[in-house]
Amino acid sequence: MGRTLQNTMINLGLQNACDEAVYQLGLDMEELEEIEEDAGLGNGGLGRLAACFLDSMATLGLAAYGYGIRYEYGIFNQKIRDGWQVEEADDWLRHGNPWEKARPEYMLPVHFYGRVEHSASGAKWIDTQVVLALPYDTPVPGYMNNTVNTMRLWSARAPNDFNLRDFNVGDYIQAVLDRNLAENISRVLYPNDNFFEGKELRLKQEYFVVAATLQDIIRRFKASKFGSTDSVRTVFDSFPDQVAIQLNDTHPAMAIPELMRIFVDIEKLPWDKAWDITKRTFAYTNHTVLPEALERWPVDLVEKLLPRHLQIIYEINQRHLDHIAALFPNDVDRLRRMSLIEEGDTKRINMAHLCIVGSHAVNGVAKIHSEIVKTQVFEDFAALEPEKFQNKTNGITPRRWLLLCNPGLAELIAEKIGEDYVRDLSQLTKLQEFVDDDLFIREVAKVKQENKVKFALYLEKEYKVKINPSSMFDVHVKRIHEYKRQLMNCLHIITMYNRIRRDPAKLFVPRTVIIGGKAAPGYHMAKMIIKLINAVAQVVNNDPMVGSKLKVIFLENYRVSLAEKVIPATDLSEQISTAGTEASGTGNMKFMLNGALTIGTMDGANVEMAEEAGEENLFIFGMRVEDVTELDRKGYNAQLYYDRLPELKQAVDQIKSGFFSPKDPNLFNDVVNMLFHHDRFKVFADYEAYVKCQEKVSELYLNSKAWTKMVIRNIAAAGKFSSDRTIKEYARDIWHVEPSDLKIPPPNEPRDAGQDKTPNGTAA
């Protein structure tokens, strides 16, 4: 979620008033804002997407809740020591959190372990361990519409009789100390992005948030006029019309068997009725196609922790497979491929399959990704129910990612096209009219230059490095992962370095290359990549032959509040994943909206950015999905590229020989070995096209006016990538609710009973 103070002031229309009031108290608002800790309660794009969605849902007047876990420790703080990533605990609640309100009156029990007893009256889950879920509410204000929604985060608490009710006669002290075991559930965020780690505590977290949330939803449903009907048989008939639950990836997939358990075991609905309601309630968003990221929980673990849920999953699977066997008799391989249970050394539950079978809608997050989902990853399921599969291209909130982080540009745009674009970003197309307006071109360039100077000062203060603000700011910030190919950027840096040294007199367009992002603590290769970047920076930044032509900076502890500083100052946005691996990306959209140009592959939302702006207004290079597929078919041979490309050979040899690690020449052996022998993401295959494309970038940067005109064309085409548009599509195609642009009267205005200004219907 990042910081809340400035976002709240902007959405409430109070920023100028607060700035002025604080100034009169002899304080500086910006200094005050810097004191607030980021709420870093998710990993990469998936968590930030949820935050943008909450902002858009409130702005569109949807009655929507964001549910999650109130981690005591969020994503770790990253320190760079001697070029290596070191993790520190993110004690973000140390000074308290003024935005949250604990709601102990809504505390709910969550059950674990135990066993199942079957009788004539149905199944009973008994002898369980209970953990209490304590909700904390954070307000989510819409933009200037007096709507305030709720983000409800659950914290784990041990019941007061924890470990004291059973045969634990003597050791009272130990029993109280053991309360920590239950409360550990909400202690810390697992820091993996795009990687599945099948740990018991993680499964506990996933079920914890799901069980508490579903109880909360059902309590609210029963308290409403829809749930309070006399006939037990029809109580839940209207449930899917009143409640829509969107599963953000498979992490909350246990919600499907949990809702079935509530309906069948507790509310005593017949299975078919319960299943119909469940399917119509859930929809599933897929966020990745990387096989190592897909959740596959061991059956043994689920059986121990959630025995009743395993039985329900088996029953769902049995009926699912019966259905397929009826449609495709004797096709045992299809049954194996489509089963929720994977046979093998250890039997596992494929959570994505569970989500697809248990939802009425499945979507990818960019056109190209949704196609891959349909035609490759889940092709059998799409063949069965093609109407279930949709696309919803991701978006970003223009409130945080333009108004808040780039007020200079936001104001400049408002002068030209008015202020309405903040709620309807498609209006940015009106900027096309000014693409040849010399004054506007100069003003856009001036705002960018001011943002660069401000960021350069920040870097000098934090990193003690002198930055040339007229150099091209070439920025690559995102989680460190092999598929995102920070290594390819690194090879380009080394290539530029070698060119400067080979011919120091030759004209070179000065660059400041900024790379930032966190590596999962257990991801060895990602940590080696960080070390390599820092080792290269050490050499480049201290070579007198290079001077101010090339500087390399690794940006420590990349997070939302740092993104808000670096993105407005960026000239070139690096979006260089291997085609077919980045589901969407959202950083790409933030840079586009803030006046950077994009160098990128035809992957994720880059494809649609090129479609909107015109491919000639992005620097697109490298293999397309088809080329990658063809190369896989032929077999990727890294050695071929190394032998054919002298500059690539030189760069790789320098890494291999210890040129960047003289004290330990073998330091980067693992990296080099990976690049030659098991590089799934084919860095060498795109190197030549990337370097050539970068030459075109430098060439255009020399012509400031032509560069800025391309920037304006990009900003004018960024309207599609508002999360408001994304949420309108979810609302229309999946949730079946109507966004409302009604401005609720403020609380100080008496509501006129005669003319009801609020809609009568209840949204989902």
UniProtKB/TrEMBL annotation:
Its BP terms in the Gene Ontology are: glycogen catabolic process
Query: Cellular component per GO?
Result: cytoplasm
User: Which protein, by its recorded name, is this?
Assistant: Alpha-1,4 glucan phosphorylase
Which cofactors? pyridoxal 5'-phosphate
Role according to the record: Allosteric enzyme that catalyzes the rate-limiting step in glycogen catabolism, the phosphorolytic cleavage of glycogen to produce glucose-1-phosphate, and plays a central role in maintaining cellular and organismal glucose homeostasis.
For this UniProt record, give its keywords in alphabetical order, as a comma-separated list: Allosteric enzyme, Carbohydrate metabolism, Glycogen metabolism, Glycosyltransferase, Phosphoprotein, Pyridoxal phosphate, Transferase
Please name the Pfam families in this protein's record: Phosphorylase
Mark the residues carrying the PTM N6-(pyridoxal phosphate)lysine. 590
Q: Where is this region: Disordered?
A: 738-764
Q: Which reaction does it catalyse?
A: [(1->4)-alpha-D-glucosyl](n) + phosphate = [(1->4)-alpha-D-glucosyl](n-1) + alpha-D-glucose 1-phosphate
Family to which the UniProt record says this protein belongs: Belongs to the glycogen phosphorylase family.
What superkingdom heads the lineage? Eukaryota
Q: Tell me, how does this one assemble?
A: Homodimer; enzymatically active. Interacts with PPP1R3B; recruits the phosphatase PP1 which dephosphorylates and inactivates PYGL/glycogen phosphorylase.
Which InterPro entries does this one have? Glycg_phsphrylas, Glyco_trans_35, Pyridoxal_P_attach_site
The record ties this protein, via SUPFAM superfamilies, to: UDP-Glycosyltransferase/glycogen phosphorylase
Q: EC number(s) for this protein? A: 2.4.1.1
Report the GO molecular function annotations.
glycogen phosphorylase activity; pyridoxal phosphate binding
Catalytic EC class = transferase
